[in-house]
């Protein structure tokens, strides 16, 4: 069993008792990247059983930046597991192994930026079959924190993360299934959630092999923290100063740089180049949340290459 860090238990890998909050959410997220193919993506499913639906997202970026993408809000009646809209998540061994399976259809987006207008994108892009069948195996500690009810946290009261090795297969469109081997990060949270509850963040995740992975978070642009996993150890980031280059005239990030100081005194430098990008959004009660997702290639200290996902969230005023 992987090392557990924080006030977590192995059974926290499964779903939890449904809370009383109308907006109670229990979500799992897995990103995955194959460096030999320059292909990657993520799957996410969030149960909102008190509201009667789940939020599910799947995306696979191709090396040329095109993508197969699908989003839906299928009906659910309980929080007994993650299985809706063709996407299922099965815990094979708590804190160690998880299977993710999606069988369905997806939009083929030659330019995923089309999703800045979702209604138009779903009408004007073709649908193709998509099968994602991956096993995620731990290469680092299972870490996180479980907060207390009434603590005022309306975004991720309880939260776990873990860096993973990933293997399995992808079937994209009418092509034959192809093998997939690489790395990724998984994330699990439960408790009340409104996407509008946090003004802004940058969530930068990446893997450089079995022995090294990272998570950097900031509240908006500028200074943040996070950690590196080095084998079974976690090394905290004392400070990470992030700067970002955006596509002209947009809030679509295309590259980033981070100057990092670790708590043990070491200093590191990270550069990220976005290989594939999609703009997503969440709307509720007049709020408009932009979530920019970037499949990103990283260079650490000018020499080691890794892959991951950079997620930029900002609250925006709806277009007039």
What would you say this structure looks like, in words?
- The chain has 320 residues and is mainly beta.
- It has one domain (23-316).
- The chain is built from 1 helix and 20 strands.
- The protein has one helix at 118-124, and strands at residues 4-5, 24-34, 39-48, 53-61, 67-72, 82-84, 87-93, 97-109, 127-138, 142-146, 158-172, 178-192, 200-207, 212-218, 222-230, 233-246, 253-262, 267-284, 287-300, 304-316.
- The radius of gyration is 18 Å and the shape is globular.
- The N and C termini lie far apart (53 Å).
- The relative contact order is 0.16.
SS elements, strand count: 20
Based on helices, strands and strand pairing, what is the structural class? mainly beta
Radius of gyration: 18 Å
How many helices?
A: 1
Strand order of the largest sheet: 2-3-4-5-8-9-11-12
Task: Name the shape in a single word.
Answer: globular
Give average pLDDT, whole number.
93
Q: Portion of residues in helices?
A: under 10%
Count of individual domains: 1
Poorly predicted regions: none
Percent of residues in beta strands?
A: over 45%
Largest sheet: 8 strands, antiparallel, barrel
SSE arrangement, N to C: EEEEEEEEHEEEEEEEEEEEE
